[in-house]
Amino acid sequence: MTMTPPLLELEGVRKSYGNGVTTEILHGIDLSIRQGDLVALIGPSGSGKSTLLNLIGLLDRPTRGRIAIEGQAAEHLDDRALTALRGDKLGFIFQAHHLLPGLTVLENVMLPSAASRGGFHPSMRAPAEALLSGMGLGDWVDAWPRQLSGGMQQRVAVARALMNQPALVLADEPTGNLDTATSNQVVDLLRERNAESATAFLIVTHDPTLARRCDRVVELVDGVVVYDGAPSGMKSWD
Amino acid sequence: MLALQLAWRFLREGRTQSLLILAGVTIGIAAFVFVSAIIEGLQVNLLEQTLGSQAHITVAPEEAPPRALMRAPGVAFARRIAPSEPRRRPFDQWQRAVRRVEATDGVVAVCPKVSGSALAYRGAAEEAVKVVGADAARLRRIVDIPANLVEGQYRLGGDEVVVGTSLADKLGARVGDPIRVRSGDRESVLRIVGIFDIGNEMVNGRWMVTSLRNAQTLLGRVGDITEIDARVADVYEAERIAREVEARTGVPTESWMERNRDLLTGLRSQDASTTMIRVFVLLAVAMGIASVLSVSVVQRRGQIGILRAVGTSRQIVLGVFLWQGVLFGLVGAVLGSLVGALAGELIETSALFDITVTPRLLFTALGVSVATGVLAAYLPARRAARLDPAAAIRGDE
Ligand SMILES: Nc1ncnc2c1ncn2[C@@H]1O[C@H](COP(=O)(O)OP(=O)(O)OP(=O)(O)O)[C@@H](O)[C@H]1O
Ligand SMILES: [Mg+2]
To answer: Half-sphere exposure of residue B204, counting CA atoms within 13 Å on the CB side?
Structure first.
């Protein structure tokens, strides 16, 4: 075994909201994700899945505990460094707010690259186009997001998340708004990407079918991890 | 770069809003340019009318003390008893004074003059006139008679005299006619060679301009002058230069600014009201931009969250909204200047003066407009930059 640190490591992560009377949402989460992992994060509504994803995505800071990405502890980094790390290492896919409506499909995909290099450059076209073609969207590069169907938009969002070749892609209910057939397409795409690159995926989902197709399932209930293992080991699916 | 690129795309996306506020900025800047141009034109015109027929600076020895008509407490007494000739003191060593005035910084033209009251006769007509004697070349640099000539020529040699249109009318005289002029017990016959209209009734109706020598003889001041007129490069520097000239020559010196205090006060208060109008126009423009951008920040919370998530820094987000302010200001300034200048052009035909849209005014409008845009965009931009990305993506407050 190599001694390289895990891609992502959480130790005793707690998160509270509110000042004065605070409510703790996450009660000490330990979690570790390695290169190439494909992980489903499941749990009832309000259990803290999005909160956890935001912490991992460096969009928010934990109240207590430690988050490290490739061995680099996030608590010592200022906003600028966090932003840079986020742009370099992480990709995001959200349920809503997929795409910027004022940017073309291609520009949306190039956005992470433009953010890390300080502007849109012609040299970003080729890799972005290749990503879109790989998802069957080669004919839509210059279209506006509103001209695309929901499933196509979500595939563009996947392409955008992969643009900077991130180490970890965080997806918050990426198929929540899609019908079964379309959502299967998106899941196929994620699995495909995961198989052919070292990119790890952490996917929040309510969809048992999606969760079962991942390599590993983490279940969160009331801010506590109650299961972390293979999908087959889950006692019950709701 | 990214900030500007995104700013442009945001503006393009919110096309209707962008065009509306752009129209607002355009109208504001057009008003700014238009009002400024009119007031500037009006002021230039007033100054030209005032200074077209008078020297910027006049150096003249004190008049002999005025005779009091009556002395009683609280009763003012007349300083000047026209038309009886005031007994002026001779101008001692005036040639030396002329050289000193010429050597003063900021003075561009100097003209020694002799002037005094006289009566002009032609047929049955009799008119009180002011005889002005000077060197033709020097005088035209103080009062540009040749440029305002309506008949004949500008020549001041021998018995030649140039008069204003209304004096010519009152005397019923034309170019070529002789005029008898009397001052005290001295009398000359001068011949009209030119008639001018300088747009000032005091000059048009009274001045008879002739050679220095003719005037000296007629007014009984051979070898002497009554005043030295000077022109300066910057009319608003006249008072300061007058003080310097006075110190250099030791002769009382007066600037146009002293002589036209009311005009100057009028111009200053006009400036103040123009400034007020400008400030209010810019305030309206700023509020328009600020409110549109504030709404835009709220509407785009989710998009801003995405931008932050994909690695866009707070500074870039700040820049995206500041640039929108700059673009509104810039494009609004260009369009507004065009509209303002065009409006000025349109009413110029019916106005009595030139409406001057100077490059300086356009640069001012541009600078002020862009600055207004940036300042107005600042608060919304700061709000956008401070958005908590997690909350923004979640879509709550
Ligand atoms: N900014 C916040 N301030 C206060 N409470 C918050 C905040 N964000 C989330 N919460 C609370 O934290 C709890 C967990 O929310 P979270 O969004 O993480 O749940 P979730 O597991 O993603 O649920 P869902 O499946 O419905 O998306 C909820 O009770 C929510 O109300
Ligand atoms: Mg959630």
So the answer is: 15
For an interface test with A, the pick among B310, B321, B327, B387 (most A C-beta atoms closer than 10 Å) comes out as B310
How do the domains of chain B map onto residue ranges?
2-48+264-394, 88-251
Q: Is A113's C-beta closer than 6 angstroms to any atom of ligand 1?
A: no
**Domains of chain A, with CATH numbers?**
8-13+24-232 (3.40.50.300)
pLDDT tens-digit map of A85-140: 998 899 999 877 679 999 999 999 999 999 989 999 999 999 999 999 988 899 99
Chain segment A153-163, per-residue pLDDT in tens: 988 999 999 99
Which of A:118-137 have CB within 8 Å of B?
118-120
Q: Give the distance from residue A165's alpha carbon to the nearest chain B alpha carbon, in angstroms.
A: 12
- Please name the member of B306, B308, B311 whose beta carbon is closest to the beta carbon of A84: B311
CB–CB contact A92 B316 (8 Å): no
Q: Contacts of residue A116 in chain B, CB cutoff 8 Å? A: 311
Q: What parts of chain B have a pLDDT lower than 50?
A: 81-85, 397
For B97, phi then psi, to 5°, come to: -60, -40
